[in-house]
Amino acid sequence: MSEDLNASVLVVDDEEQFLEVFSKRLEGRGLKVEKAVSGEEALKHAQGKNFDTIILDMMMPGISGLDALKKLKKENPDAQVIILTGHATVEKGVEAIKAGAVDFLEKPVDINKLLEKIGDAQHKRMIIVEKKSEETVKELLKTKGW
After folding, report:
1. Domain residues for 81?
2. What's the CATH number where 96 sits?
3. Count of structural domains within the chain
4. How far apart are CA 35 and CA 141, in angstroms?
5. pLDDT at 3 over 50
6. Model confidence, pTM
7. CB 19 within 8 A of CB 11
8. In angstroms, rounded to a whole number, what is the distance separating the alpha carbons of residues 116 and 94?
């Protein structure tokens, strides 16, 4: 699956060394990666952009991953967000999924599993975009009478 994965991804983690290494691994597999070191920076990066997937660290100073998730989903309900954490609990996982995350994975994450999740998120996003386009065309046809 990773061979045909041509996704744009925003990776958000306050641990800069992890962020660099992790981003390089994703780029090495053909993904277009943007990086942010905080929840605040993630919100700025996401404004006006449509990433196929946003990968958010759960525990960050300032705006936590969970708070960033909620704000990202409010701005862009179609955003496909995967939460990564080194401090996984069932409660946090449930909370993240309820807030709109498509998945919740524990660090260190298996890169192949993550690539599969990114592919799934990219596919979901494409379906949402296609559905919205169809609705727009239907509305146009109604109003124009074609």
Report:
1. 2-144
2. 3.40.50.2300
3. 1
4. 41
5. no
6. 0.87
7. yes
8. 21
